[in-house]
Amino acid sequence: METRINKLSEIDRRNPFTVPENYFSRFNEHIMTCLPENKIEKTKKVSLWGKTKPWVYMAAMFMGIFFIIQLLTKDAANQAVTLSSTQFTDDYWSTVQITEEEFYQYLEEQLVNDGYYDYMYNQIYTN
Amino acid sequence: MEKYSEEQLLEKLRDPRTQRQGFAILVSEYSERLYWQIRKMVLSHDDANDILQDVFIKAWTNIDNFRGESKLTTWLYRIAINESITFLNKKRNQNNVSVDDENSFLLNTLESDEYFDGDEAQKLLQQAVLTLPDKQRLVFQMKYFDEMKYEEMSDILGTSVGALKASYHHAVKKIENFLTDSN
């Protein structure tokens, strides 16, 4: 006999599939025997070093960062001092304006003063 | 067997001392529902039986990773659906079937399966359902045969309710066209 159907509603909704007798109860028992026995072993003991290792590593890392920062800031401070003193000398001589004549006169005065001090030294201590 | 709420069951499954007992409860609670879901996808009883075993073994080995973000049912359904689709793809590759004819092997399975006792109309309906793509077939079966709510389907399939409604509507149309054409 030919089946003529146009609408889904014309078809019986009953489940057309079947299973062997007692299939589900047998399956439930069977599957429990197939399961691997590895569940409880998974909770293994963690040693003290194992627990503290990440914290020790983190502390070491912070110490390292601290020393690197210290070293860098110290170098930068030294560099700043050297730079400022050199800059001061350069600035000073760039502001002093003396002629050549005045310079020679200054040297001469220095020599005279030095000669005077040598004479006095000889008079007092060597006699 | 005593009835357990999902929270009570999860508590048992999380404690290594009661895990096995909890899993036995889970199997007896969900095996039938999952079986029918798989069976409607793969049609053969033997294949559905093998896939169901794989589903529970996968669930057992991954139960510690289950964080309870979704319901246990949703999680199990997802495993079952993934396993069924993987199985069907493997079968298609093995049989080296063309795209147009990709579900013909399932129809052969249905005809030779001793655990199918549907009448001609039901066989025709199965034939029509097999013309649908896997995901649409899944949507149709969940709604038409299992009368599942769209919200629950959405959780399992990760698709919006709107998309599921549209998919079901198209599936019904395709099936009715198939039925009309086959007259």
Descriptive terms for the model:
heterodimer, A: 127 residues, mainly alpha, B: 183 residues, Rna Polymerase Sigma Factor, Chain: A, Arc Repressor Mutant, subunit A, 9 helices, 0% strand, globular
The helix-and-strand class of chain A reads mainly alpha
Strand percent estimate of chain B: under 5%
Helix and strand run of chain A: HHH
Query: What form of chain A results from the Cα inertia axes?
Result: rod-shaped
- Bin the strand percentage of chain A: under 5%
Biggest interface pair, residues each? A-B, 30 and 44 residues
CA distance, first residue to last residue of chain B? 49 Å
The overall average pLDDT of chain A, rounded, is: 78
- CATH superfamily membership of the largest domain in chain B: RNA polymerase sigma factor, region 2, helix turn helix motif
CATH topology of the largest domain in chain B: Rna Polymerase Sigma Factor, Chain: A
Radius of gyration of chain B: 18 Å
The amount of helix of chain A comes to 55-70%
Rg of Cα set of chain A: 51 Å
**CATH architecture level-2 label of the largest domain in chain B:** Orthogonal Bundle
CATH class value of the largest domain in chain B: Mainly Alpha
User: Can you summarize the main beta sheet of chain A?
Assistant: none
Q: How far apart, in Å, are the first and last alpha carbons of chain A?
A: 156 Å
Please estimate the helix content of chain B.
over 70%
Work out the count of structural domains of chain B: 2
Q: Which blocks of ≥5 consecutive residues of chain A have pLDDT under 50?
A: none
Q: Unreliable segments of chain B (pLDDT under 50, ≥5 consecutive)?
A: none
